[in-house]
């Protein structure tokens, strides 16, 4: 009984001690995952076929399209 | 570099905003609509009164077409404060408290070991707990354990169980915990209320309880301190735990369990902090009770677990006043026991 | 890499609720869930202002910090997304969020919360891009289509801008200098005032 208790405590205490502090949410995109959740980069699909530059161009065009000064004057 | 420019721009805007807001900060929220209306005439495009309202989130003329709780509030700054309190002191010091409580118990166990009955067991049993006493104790006990474990998973699980189990498995555990917490909670509260009524008469404070508390129940010295049906330690658990903590934890829990009554987020945040702090202290205290009720005091667990009967020797050792009462004697002989016998006796401090 | 942001111009918003409608329509959002809403201040008096608000995809998101099961993740565009499969429906993200973004379909006794739903910046979720599962849980993935959020793109007065924070800040700056006043960028201090967490991907240009 005594030994079981000691062993149980030895297992539980480090786990409990691990609970001290805010867990850093620092992880980066690697191998198809963000912070451990599977998700692909927005250009990794059948639409852009991994062409990051094409995706960035498409988004940039849409982005600048929101500028009505440019839209009205330049185009 | 581009990012820096944007940042500087934002900073400049913030400074301008603060400069605009500062002189007007002292004004009351009432009449802010009127102020804004007047400002529009004097200085078109100056929206200082409006932005003050946005920050405060208290404008009575703030409306939206979306139905829901506080949907007309644009910014609630309390959430960030709650996050810092919950993820900071509550988690950190709560964790320390539980670890230290467990360590203290472990240390006591290694130092003193279980408290045994000294002298021969008589073999004569007396009834201590009725079947109802035991049923209600275990209903509360088991539901309390479920609440404690599921609550710990939700407060600390992210830090110690998530890295071990991984996201999917831990999510299942957390979903199970949350649902158990939600549905066992009311069961626990009802059972605790019944247990309170059941055990109330036996937990009325008496004069000898103070003596017992001053001597720490003889837990450290090994001195024999007589007590009634429940000793002062058990009474502390009853009044502080079963009574006070249960009410606090129960009330703050129900506020969060029923979001149906349109209580705002601030009420929820307060409830959450009160709930977590009380629950951690409650758990730390009950660790002591669980220890003394199982391995800490020989014979204590069997009485509650199996038949409610205790040996006469056990009763005399741990609850002498009660033993004398049962035996029909009016006064205790404990204080007058012979020195040899007193030294041999170790009073169990059953918390 | 672009850091995606929303910018709501109170000077321009006419409270048409077009962004709200666009969002609901684009993602086929169930009744009772409102990823975006328009708040009007001092309705009916001169100088009334309206602001469109949804998840701002904060730099140091409180929802991420308080989530007991860590459902949130942030893409390299700074978009805060979540995995609904992991969500336990505790509501903590709703307590913490400054903007009231997290939504819970109430689908049970006791006001039991369902899986949290919120604005995804039209970037879907962890499921494969354009899959049925992704659409059902998170709505359309316009970002993977090379588009920007529907609410911002269809805003008739361009009061709501969405996209690369630097670009929309430039657009807004030009607007402010042109009209002279109304420079308040609402919510940016709260949303983007703190350092990015998690930090931007190493090697990515900022």
Produce a short descriptive summary.
The complex is a heterotrimer of chains A (75), B (351) and C (206). With 75 residues, chain A is mostly helical. Helix content of chain A is 48%, strand content 5%.
Written account of the structure:
- The complex is a heterotrimer of chains A (75), B (351) and C (206).
- By secondary structure, chain A is mostly helical.
- Chain A has a domain at 40-75.
- In chain A, 48% of the residues lie in helices and 5% in strands.
- The longest helix of chain A is centred in the N-terminal third of the chain and has 16 residues, at 2-17.
- Chain A is rod-shaped.
- Chain A starts with a helix and ends with a helix.
- The relative contact order of chain A is 0.06.
- Residues 23-27 of chain A have low confidence and may be disordered.
- The longest helix of chain B has 35 residues, at 78-112.
- In chain B, 37% of the residues are buried.
- Chain B folds into two domains: 2-56, no CATH class; 78-344, Transmembrane di-heme cytochromes, Chain C (Fumarate Reductase Cytochrome B subunit, Up-down Bundle).
- Chain B has 14 helices and three strands.
- Helices cover 68% and strands 3% of the residues of chain B.
- Chain B has helices at residues 2-21, 32-42, 48-56, 78-112, 131-160, 162-165, 167-200, 207-214, 232-257, 265-296, 300-307, 312-318, 320-326, 339-344; strands spanning 62-64, 125-127, 309-311.
- Chain C has 206 residues and is α+β, with helices and mostly antiparallel strands.
- Chain C has one domain: Alpha-Beta Plaits, CATH 3.30.70.20.
- Chain C has seven helices and six strands, in the order βαββαββαααβαα.
- A two-stranded antiparallel sheet of chain C has the order 1-6. In chain C, strands 2-3 form a two-stranded antiparallel ribbon.
- In chain C, a hairpin with a 5-residue loop joins strand 4 (72-74) and strand 5 (80-82).
- The longest helix of chain C is centred in the last third of the chain and has 15 residues, at 165-179.
- The chains are: A mainly alpha (75), B mainly alpha (351), C alpha+beta (206).
- Chains in contact: A-B, A-C, B-C.
- Chains B and C meet through helix 1, helix 2, helix 3, strand 1 and helix 4 of B and strand 2, strand 3, helix 2, helix 3 and helix 6 of C.
């Amino acid at each position: 009984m005594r030994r079981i208790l000691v062993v149980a405590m030895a297992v539980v205490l480090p786990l409990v001690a691990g609970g001290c502090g805010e867990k850093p949410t620092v992880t980066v995109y690697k191998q198809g995952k963000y912070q451990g959740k599977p998700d692909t980069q927005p250009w990794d699909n059948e639409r852009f076929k991994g062409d990051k530059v094409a995706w960035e161009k498409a988004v940039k065009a849409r982005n600048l399209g929101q500028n009505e000064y440019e839209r009205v004057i330049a185009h | 570099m581009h990012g820096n420019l944007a940042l500087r721009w934002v900073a400049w805007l913030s400074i301008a905003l603060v400069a605009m807001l500062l002189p007007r900060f002292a004004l009351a929220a009432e009449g802010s609509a009127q102020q804004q209306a007047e400002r529009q005439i004097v200085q078109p495009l100056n929206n200082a009164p409006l932005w003050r309202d946005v920050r405060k989130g208290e404008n009575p003329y703030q409306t939206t077409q979306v139905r829901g709780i506080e949907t007309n509030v644009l910014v609630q700054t309390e959430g960030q404060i709650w996050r810092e309190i919950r993820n900071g002191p509550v988690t950190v010091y709560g964790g320390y408290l539980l670890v230290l409580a467990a360590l203290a118990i472990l240390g006591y166990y290694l130092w003193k070991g279980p408290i045994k009955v000294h002298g021969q067991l008589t073999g004569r049993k007396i009834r201590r707990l009725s079947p109802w006493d035991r049923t209600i104790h275990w209903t509360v006990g088991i539901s309390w354990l479920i609440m404690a474990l599921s609550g710990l998973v939700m407060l600390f699980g992210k830090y110690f169980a998530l890295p071990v189990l991984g996201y999917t498995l831990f999510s299942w555990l957390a979903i199970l915990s949350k649902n158990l917490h939600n549905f066992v909670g009311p069961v626990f509260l009802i059972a605790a209320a019944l247990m309170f009524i059941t055990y109330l008469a036996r937990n009325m404070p008496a004069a000898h309880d103070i003596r017992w508390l001053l001597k720490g129940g003889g837990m450290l010295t090994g001195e024999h301190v007589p007590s009634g049906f429940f000793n002062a330690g058990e009474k502390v658990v009853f009044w502080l735990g079963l009574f006070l903590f249960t009410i606090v934890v129960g009330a703050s829990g129900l506020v969060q369990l029923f979001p149906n009554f349109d209580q705002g987020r601030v009420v929820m945040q307060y409830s959450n902090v009160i709930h977590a702090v009380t629950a951690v202290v409650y758990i730390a205290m009950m660790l002591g009770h669980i220890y003394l009720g199982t391995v800490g005091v020989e014979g204590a667990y069997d009485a509650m677990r199996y038949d409610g009967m205790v040996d006469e020797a056990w009763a005399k050792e741990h609850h002498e006043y009660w033993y004398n009462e049962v035996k029909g004697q009016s006064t205790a002989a404990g204080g007058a026991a012979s020195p040899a016998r007193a030294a041999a006796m170790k009073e169990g401090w059953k918390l | 890499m672009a850091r995606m942001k929303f910018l709501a111009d109170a000077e321009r918003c006419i409270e048409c609720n077009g962004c709200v409608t666009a969002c609901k329509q684009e993602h086929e959002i169930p009744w009772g869930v409102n990823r975006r809403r328009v708040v009007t201040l001092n309705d009916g008096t001169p100088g009334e202002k309206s602001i469109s608000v949804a998840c701002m995809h904060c730099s140091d998101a409180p929802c991420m910090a308080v989530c007991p099961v860590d459902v949130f993740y942030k893409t390299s565009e700074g978009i805060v997304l979540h995995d609904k499969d992991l969500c336990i429906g505790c509501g903590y993200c709703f307590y913490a969020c400054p903007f009231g973004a997290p939504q819970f379909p109430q689908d049970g006794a006791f006001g039991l919360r369902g899986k949290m739903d919120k604005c995804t910046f039209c970037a879907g979720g962890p499921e494969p891009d354009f899959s049925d599962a992704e659409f059902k849980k998170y709505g359309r993935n316009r970002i993977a289509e090379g588009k920007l959020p529907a609410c911002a793109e269809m805003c008739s007065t361009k009061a709501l801008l969405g996209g690369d924070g630097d670009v929309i800040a430039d657009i807004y700056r030009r607007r402010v200098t042109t009209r002279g006043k109304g420079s308040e960028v609402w919510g940016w201090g709260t949303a983007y005032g703190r350092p990015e967490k998690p930090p931007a991907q190493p090697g990515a240009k900022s």
